[in-house]
Each structure stands twice: as structure tokens, then as C-alpha cells.
Design brief:
Chain A: Keywords: Iron. The complex is a heterodimer of chains A (85) and B (162). Chain A is α+β, with helices and mostly antiparallel strands and 85 residues long. Chain A is 16% helix and 39% strand. Chain B is an alpha/beta fold. Chain B has 6 helices and 6 strands. The relative contact order of chain B is 0.19. The chains are: A alpha+beta (85), B alpha/beta (162).
Amino acid sequence: MKSQSEVSLPLPMASEGSHVRIVGFHGNQRNAHRLAELGMNPGVILTLLRNNGGSLLVAVGDTRLALNYGMAQAVLVCPLEREVS
Amino acid sequence: MSDCILALAGNPNVGKSTIFNALTGMRQHIGNWPGKTVERKEGHVQVSGRTMTLVDLPGTYSLAARSLEEQIARDFIVRSQPKAVINVLDAANLERNLYLTAQLLETGARLILVLNMADVATSRGLVLNPHALSDELGCPAITMAASKGQGLAELRAALQGL
């Protein structure tokens, strides 16, 4: 589900306020399926608004989603250096 | 007293209740946060002398129900078999909204697509082509800015054809 050349890390390891692109999911399919339903598909750009070590707040388009740590851990992302509007 | 049942379905916070209020003249509470409608609400719409029952369903991302609100929405669409489902979409975030549309189409329900918040989409430079969407999915598509009352006449016209 993810391309080899990209750096990818679990979403909770990205820094607060950063923009990241989803490159894939790991863990069970149930989580991946639910995340896709919520609009979190590979290629989608997220903003990590808050990460308090327990749960995360992300912005996907105009929607904010709260994710628990386990769910967020299943999301593999690639940090984007440039600002995305 | 009522001809048929219609349902309003869509993702959370896309304007379903705003459209519900505009069509029924009711004042269902609306708020700018997702999950405002947690149970279904009913009202009546008058369309050229006919009375239709309109059901405002809770917002859902999918019909594979995980939460109570999603179960309410799914059960209604699947079991009550409304005459038509008015699928409200956020025109500024179409891609994610169309996931539910695909699932609704799979249920075999007759859909009317409402691309709501078209004003927001336009202000971001997005160009909507409802005809292309309509041709591709085989159901009418209407652009709307429900908070400003734009597009309601077109929706009423579409309801007339049911």
C-alpha cells in the first residue's frame, strides 16, 4: 500500500502543526476501512493540529477528526516540508 | 395524508438540517458542528399540492454502521425504503462525500444529489459541473447554497418529478 522510496512514519510521530500526506495504513483492515470512510485515504493531506500523547486532532479538508492513539498509530504518513494551503 | 417518504442523508455538517428547515418551514435546531442531529426528525413538504414526509437523518460517513447515529441512518434507508433519498454533499469537499453516495447507490435507492455550500466552493475557485456528475451517476444533481436559499427552487422541481 505504500511506495518504497518515501519516508513514512506513524502519524503520532509527526510534529504538531505539520502537514503530512497519508502513504498507507498498517494494522488491521477494520481500522483502515474506517479511516478511509472518514476521508483519510492514501494521498490525502492532513494537518496535525494537536497531539497530546493520548489522542490526536487532525484536519482533513474542512473537517476535524479526533483519533485515538491506536487508530492514529495505524496511519503511515510522509511529512511535507512546504506549507500546504 | 402523505404521498411518500423522502430522506435527507449525507456526511455530518454538510447542511442537511438547513435544507430540512428550508423545505418544511420547521425550525429544527441547527449548529455549525458535526453530529447535531442524533435522531431522525420528520417534517412535511408541500410540493404542488402534494404532501411529502421528509425525514432528516443524522450525518453519517458510511452505511457500514459503527455508531448509533449511523445505525439510525442506515436502518431507515434500508428498511423504510423511502421514495427518494436526498443526498446532501459538501461541494467544497466532494471527494470524501462521494464515498457515502457510492454506498447509497448500492442500496438501489433513488438519489437526488444536492451539492450544498456551492458558494463556499466557488469562493475557493472550484468549478462545479453538476451535469457531469448527474450523467455519471444517473441521478439528478443540484447545486445549492442552502444558507442563502439558492437552489431550493431546483430541488422542489426535482421533488415534483417523483
